[in-house]
């Protein structure tokens, strides 16, 4: 089993939702974490809150995954602060949903640029650092990355792309000692796409919770390096019956 104590992780979109849940779980396991957001205030506020509940250190960074230079700077700041980079979780994402007849050019570009190109930029910016530490790269895809649905043209395209990109990257890097996986969640109770989740005792309780994804990431990082779950689908165990 891998020891995570004093390792370092960089999480894109880590100020809330799945990214925050992953950051919290990793910090409880002894990992120092850098989280990015397009808002420096949000990133620093989340980092301060995370440090209250753990003994590890957190760093908030302003960065937009749609900008390669931002991602390169995020990696540089992380290494300057913590001395190394062991893990990258490419989590930042958005969703624009609607029929192809109503989907705008702006919505298409923002979805692809954030969800797919953002993962590419995160990988390009961090791959050499991960080679140095024999590290681990995880993308957060979705069950929508293999299952299409009406109104999902942009989102499906982006997540199908993330799934394919990450699996090809896994083959590119495994002989360099870098592990690569994609996690594909179903319904998660977060603020994604403007959603307002309720407390656990409410009708959100059946959904995957952000801490569940955090637990999964910790488990992946702890695994013996000889084994690699390259694609992990995770669903609510008991969704409401239709």
UniProtKB/TrEMBL annotation:
Origin superkingdom: Bacteria
Domain Ketoreductase: 7-192
SMART domains associated with the record: PKS_KR
Biological process per Gene Ontology, one example term: monocarboxylic acid metabolic process
Entry-linked PANTHER family: 3-OXOACYL-(ACYL-CARRIER-PROTEIN) REDUCTASE, 3-OXOACYL-[ACYL-CARRIER-PROTEIN] REDUCTASE FABG
Protein family (similarity comment): Belongs to the short-chain dehydrogenases/reductases (SDR) family.
Name this polypeptide is given: Ketoreductase domain-containing protein
UniProt organism field: Mesonia algae
